[in-house]
Amino acid sequence: MRSLLAYSPCVILLLAAAQPRSLLAQYQKFEGRPVVNIRFEPAEQPLEGSELFEILPLKRDQPLRISVVRASVERLFATGRYRDIQVDAEPYNGGVIVKFITTNSWFIGSVSVSGKVENSPNRGQLVNAARLELGQPFNEKQLEPAVTNQRKLLESNGLFLSSVYPVLDYDSVHQHVNIRFVIDRGRRARFGPPVLLGDFKMDPERVLRATKFRRWLIHTWKPVTQLRVRQGLDGVRSLLQKENRLEARVTLESMDYDVDTNRAITTMRLVAGPRISVNVLGASVSRSTLRRLVPIFEEHAVDRDLLMEGSRNLRDYFQSQGYFDSQVEFKQQKVINDKADVDFLVNKGTRHRLVEITIQGNHYFSTDVIRERMYLQKANFLQFPHGRYSENLVKRDRENITNLYLSNGFRDVKVTSHSTDDFRGKVGDIAVTIDIEEGPQYLVNSIQVEGMNTLNKARLLPKLSSAEGQPFSEFNVAVDRDTILAEYFANGFPHATFEWSSKPAADPHRVDLLFVVNEGGQQFVRAVLITGLKVTQPALVARTLRLNPGDPLSPNAITDTQRRLYDLGVFAKVDAAIENPDGETSRKNVLYDMEEAARYSLATGVGAELARIGGCANCLGNGQTGASARVSVDMARNNLWGLGHSISLRTRASTLLQRAVLSYNWPRFRNHENLSLSFTGLAENSQDVRTFSYTRAEGSVQLTQRLSKASTVFYRYAYRRVNVDQATLAITPLLIPLLAQPVRVGIVSVGWILDRRDDPVDPHKGIYNTVDIGLAEHFFGSQINFARLLVRNATYHPITKKVVFARSTQVGDIYAFHNTGDPETAIPLPEHFFGGGASSHRGFPELQAGPRDPTTGLPLGGNFLFFNQTEVRFPLIGENIGGVLFHDAGNIYTSLNSFSLRQTQRDIQDFNYMVHAVGIGVRYRTPIGPLRVDLAYSINGPQYFGFNGTQQDLINAGVNPCATTNRCQVQQLNHFQYFFSIGQTF
């Protein structure tokens, strides 16, 4: 029990109400009298009355004891809610009324910064510099170091004339202090000529240029920022490093401000050190590899530990290259004439190949299961031409196998290894043998759990790894410990502890387990307090909370609520904390302090598209490489009306496409977490794409429902009008009246996505399904009636640990009904399926599959789609480069009735057959997904009769180009196609 004096020197025990007497006399007068009543002043207390009288040792109708009063004061202080407590007593009806006079503590609430604050530093950096943590006890003495830290941060960014003034806003209801720092940043200083101290062994002008404090060419000084100072120091270090001064030291001694010139003069101390040359003797290593393997370059220091680490890294490097017997030592030379050498002496030995890995003695685990956990790799073509082997890898594999057995109850397992040189008489070949002595398996005979009184033991025990008849291991016990404590923490038991013991059972190789849980006290949520809202409606935040008063104080629920608040997309920062975390109370406040994100955003971009496309400005149906410049401007207004809604305008302009999309998004539609509603308006003008140019105006509304983590359903209504520009319609004039007429389409559609892939960017296992069903009908405002179905199924099957078989099948159909003409030609051209290219069929250029115009040879699209793609993905070279063998089959068909698996083209007017393509690809792993290059060979690509020339040539030829020119001839798609993109094909 902590001493009363440890809490406050102001605690006074007054056991007399009248004239002053000695404390002993007061004590003797009231000691032993019954406590008639207990009062608190002021009446409003931070703890509720029931909680107060529950925690107080002092009780009514009990004799007054000074020790009990002292314990009561200590218990009140232990709650952390009081800064000062005084006790008074007065006689009443033969007893005593005890009165506690309290002064509440304060806790840190919202910490913010106001004033004209820009970057370097920004508001977040200034708030962090104050080091005032949300929910922690507050004392005004904390303000002085907070202001000092902020001023240091401002001065390090050249703001020497800035001022910081804290403004405190006390919330007596919740005992919060909201702190706002008013910043007057003043003008920013500029750099001046730096002062250089020490032995830098070079022209000072070179050092000045390396700092980049002065602008190039015009030689004016840049404004001071902390980033520029740090970059300046790094620039000087890099300059010294380039001269092989690996032990160079560059430090900032001071930065002095000259008020008259508004200049900041930095003082740097440079210790250049000697030139150190790192040499590898006995082997050839590139400079970049040497810098990567020897840590002295990164640490900017030369000591024995770093050199030994470099020796080990070099040894492992040579062993990975097949020199399994390589040895590396280092020798550090003395400094002579400002120069020193560090020599790594390499004896590579004979180059070997790891051709065999044998695992013997294993009975419980299969060889495949053990191999999956090993780093050793046999030699194979391209990826590991000499295998992957080193002493360190062998040691790690033995440890991994041992841990595997230990975690499954084999406590006496022994794993050893030995290698055989010149395996099977072939010089240089090595075989590694792993010998496993499994020993007996220990099983759990019984398990007993004590101390679990509050939680449901019957529900929790089935989650444990340790169970009767299951393998016994300390790994499983550690997992069980984490499982039990996580359950207790989630239910508001922050001080729960877990201990365990074991003893041999009567039967051999069986163990009796005892788990002992000390629950500690359970804590609950008193209230959830929100600060920092300016525009956002409190109701929006309240609907997001996972915590309510009276709930167990769960850290999981606190962080889950924090994640859900971020998911609203309206907050740049969400801080969560428990108020008064060290206070000994069973009910605590949970605090969320939010910083709202910017409501307006603007993004611009420029770029270009390069691809083999059809219908480009200088090519027609065969598809040639075309280029298009592109400019995009996106604007958004977030958190409309404080409800989390958003509106955005996305525009894109290029030589091929001009598009504007206006979207309104309503997340969590009508307070349903899994529903979102969006309205979209689109205006588009597409030029020289595929077979035609068109203008398109569309409005749509979509309701998205998330059924589960993997499953999502879309309900959509779209109304669009597409008008084909007849002047650019590069097809036979006989089709113009039918396909070029303006068309209005009102379509209701339902979509479903099921995504159970392990990695959407680079999947190795799982399934991916999409279904899109649409109905266009007069009732929905459509000019033509048709139904549309598009289904896709992709599966991913691991053949081995690193080889994956991937398959994707896509089927689509458009069917016109209530139509007096030919259903196959009733669908307007813009509504047709178009396909072919990198994501559907690599035997075609982009969007060049399917039926073609008999005069120009340009694609017309079709009403039925079938594509099937298969890939075998495998490692190729090292860890980051993979290979792909693929086969694509399918086509765009005129209609479902025209679908055929036929492999040959009957004539140049026949496009309703199955086109096959095979090819190879390379995948290079990057942080944003695999970089993809594919080369495809079309086995039976179509021939067609068409116009051989540019689009302008076709326009100049008039309405009957084949009659007026000699450019119409039989053509064939190029057998070879190439594609370059990011991400897997499917």
Structure description:
The structure is a single chain. The protein has eight domains: 4-104, membrane protein fhac (Ubiquitin-like (UB roll)), CATH 3.10.20; 107-184, Ubiquitin-like (UB roll) (Roll); 190-271, membrane protein fhac (Ubiquitin-like (UB roll)), CATH 3.10.20; 275-347, membrane protein fhac (Ubiquitin-like (UB roll)); 353-437, Roll (Ubiquitin-like (UB roll)), CATH 3.10.20; 443-518, Ubiquitin-like (UB roll), CATH 3.10.20; 524-596, Ubiquitin-like (UB roll), CATH 3.10.20; 604-982, Porin. With 986 residues, the protein is an alpha+beta fold. Helix 4 (123-130) packs across helix 5 and helix 6 (204-211) packs across helix 7 (226-242). The two termini are 66 Å apart.
Level-1 CATH class name of the largest domain: Mainly Beta
Any idea what the shape is? globular
Strand order of the largest sheet: 25-26-27-28-29-30-31-32-33-34-35-36-37-38-39-42
Instruction: State the CATH superfamily name of the largest domain.
Output: membrane protein fhac: a member of the omp85/tpsb transporter family
Low-confidence stretches: 1-24, 611-619, 733-740
Number of helices: 19
| Gyration radius, in Å | 39 Å
Q: What is the helix content? A: 10-25%
| Annotation, overall tally of beta strands | 42
Largest sheet: 16 strands, antiparallel
Mean pLDDT metric: 86
CATH topology of the largest domain: Porin
Which band does the percent of strand residues land in?
A: 35-45%
Oligomeric form: single chain
